[in-house]
Amino acid sequence: MRASVQTRFVPRRSVDAQVRYDGSMTAEPSDARLSDIAAAIAEPARTRMLCALMDGHARTSTELAVVADVSPSTASAHLAKLKEHRLLRMHAQGKHRYYALADEQVAAALEALMVVAGMHLPRFAPNTPDRLRFARRCYNHLAGTLGVAVHDHFVGAGWLVVDPALDAARAHAQPPEAAPDEEAMPTRTDYVLTAPGERALGEFGIDLAAARQPRRRFACACLDWSMRRPHLGGALGVAVLAALETRQWIERDLDSRALRLTRLGERELLARWGIGN
C-alpha cells in the first residue's frame, strides 16, 4: 500500500522573497526606503522641481519656486525633503545656494519615470547677453560657454579628477541616514591633476608649481551663473586663462568682462581639444 504524501503549497511570492533576500529578513527597511523616496518624488511641486533639473543645470530655490508654482518658503521645505532623501545636492557660491540632482543614478531613475509618463526632457534657456554668455572673466578665470567646455574637456580627458582626500572626508563627515544641514555642508569640488594632466598642461606652457601656492585653492569647480554648470576655478583656472591670452587665442573686451575668441583660437581649440565655437 502506497504511503500518502502530503504536499505543502508555497506561494510564489514567498519563494521569490527567500531567493531575493537570502533569508536575511531585511526586506522591510528596503521597502520602506523605496516607499519614502517614491512619496518624495510623487508630490507634484517636487516632481516639477526634479524634472526642471533634468537638463543638468543647477537652479536657485527662488527659480525652483517659480517652476513649482509655490511660495519661496514652501519651496525651501520641498527642497529640504528632497535633500533628506538624497535626491538633490546643494552648491553654495557666495550668497547664493544652487540645487542640482544628486548624481547620475538619480537622473537615470527620473529619466526612466519620464519615459514611462511620456514626458520630454526640459531644455535650459539662459537669459544672459550672448557676448557675456559665450566667454567672460570670472575672478580672472575663464567662464561662460567656452569656460564650461574647457572644464568638461579637462575632466573628460582624465586630466582632472576629484580630490580623493576631499571625497573621503565628505564620505565620513556624516552617516548616510542623516540629512546634511544646508548651511553647514555645502557641496564643494576640488580637483587634482593626474599624470597625463601634468604633462598636457605643462606642455601647454602653464607654470604648475606657481599655481600650487599654498595660500590659494589649486583647482576647483566654480558654478557658472549663466550656464549653471561648472567651469574651472582656482589658481589653475587663472593660469589657463592667462595661457590662452598669451597664445592670443582669446582677447579681452575693452569695456566689459567679455572675452573674444580669435580666429587662431577657434582653429587651435578645435584641433587640440576638440572644442568648437
Number of helices: 13
- Using the alpha-carbon principal axes, give the shape: elongated
First-last Cα distance:
90 Å
* Rg over C-alpha atoms, rounded to the nearest angstrom: 24 Å
Task: Write down the secondary-structure element order.
Answer: HHHEHHEEHHEEHEHEHHEEHEEH
Can you give a write-up of this model?
- The termini are far apart.
- The protein has helices at 12-21, 27-42, 44-52, 61-68, 72-84, 104-117, 130-134, 144-156, 164-173, 195-203, 208-211, 234-246, 263-273; strands at 59-60, 88-93, 96-101, 136-138, 141-143, 160-162, 191-193, 220-223, 230-233, 250-252, 259-261.
- The strands form 5 sheets. It has a 3-stranded antiparallel β-sheet. Strands 4-5 form a two-stranded antiparallel ribbon.
- The protein is built from 13 helices and 11 strands.
- It folds into 2 domains: 18-117, Orthogonal Bundle (Arc Repressor Mutant, subunit A), CATH 1.10.10.10; 130-273, no CATH class.
- The chain is elongated and about 55 Å long.
- With 277 residues, the protein is α+β, with helices and mostly antiparallel strands.
Architecture blueprint of SSEs:
Blueprint: H1 12-21, H2 27-42, H3 44-52, E1 59-60, H4 61-68, H5 72-84, E2 88-93, E3 96-101, H6 104-117, H7 130-134, E4 136-138, E5 141-143, H8 144-156, E6 160-162, H9 164-173, E7 191-193, H10 195-203, H11 208-211, E8 220-223, E9 230-233, H12 234-246, E10 250-252, E11 259-261, H13 263-273
Q: How would you summarize this macromolecular structure in one to three sentences?
A:
With 277 residues, this protein is an alpha+beta fold.
Notable features of this structure?
single chain; 3-stranded antiparallel β-sheet; elongated; Arc Repressor Mutant, subunit A; disordered N terminus; alpha+beta
